[in-house]
């Protein structure tokens, strides 16, 4: 009986360490506190920007900021109307375009988004950009980075150091963050999101772009263009972490009727 106790405690702790993703209602593990994670994310993001050429004051850079701000505002208003504003507590949204021909984009915890200039020809216009950014904003809103790190904590520590993991600033959290987003290698590439998270980001991304007034019917064409770009000599980086395939395009089409219910054309 005594031996069961740690497992019982672990189960109870995990029960309280769950949260629900808005709209999809999926239960996710949440062992990493925003208080410890967001400052790391923000400083890593700043460091990344310092090491890359941030494009400022061009129409393209302005598009990235405008599309990002419109989607962010629509999502904030929606979450607020549902009494879920807490979800975005401490977020400091930022949308930057950097000079880099990789077909890539990513989001760090707390709303720090980067779009690479190589993505622009595939996006083609603001609506295409809204597909990419809706997807990235969805990863941030659904806290997929935190979830992945929480799973990593469980995998690395098991139940043994759960109390440590649950404390404010465990070294393990820092280590996992550096593994995930460290600047040593390619930022955003080391922590592939799971298939479940990718599909969820596709579904929420469509809804978020629709809420902001971008036509979600454009998404399937965007992913077709991504798929075509993949046929080139160098597969886009975005695709190595964001698998684009027929399944994804089929899912997008399946999610479309739901997204259309949120669509508010401007
Ligand atoms: Zn993704």
TrEMBL record:
Lineage of producing organism: Bacteria, Pseudomonadati, Nitrospirota, Nitrospiria, Nitrospirales
GO cellular component: membrane
Listed InterPro entries: Mito/Outer_Membr_Metalloprot (IPR051156), Peptidase_M48 (IPR001915)
Descriptive protein name: M48 family metallopeptidase
GO molecular function: metal ion binding; metalloendopeptidase activity
The record's free-text note on cofactor binding: Binds 1 zinc ion per subunit.
Database matches in CDD domains: M48C_Oma1_like
Segments crossing the lipid bilayer: none
Range of residues in the leader sequence: 1-17
Domain Peptidase M48, first and last residues per copy: 70-254
Keywords annotated in UniProt: Hydrolase, Metal-binding, Metalloprotease, Protease, Signal, Zinc
GO biological process: proteolysis involved in protein catabolic process
UniProt cofactor(s): Zn(2+)
Naturally occurring in which organism (per UniProt): Candidatus Nitrobium versatile
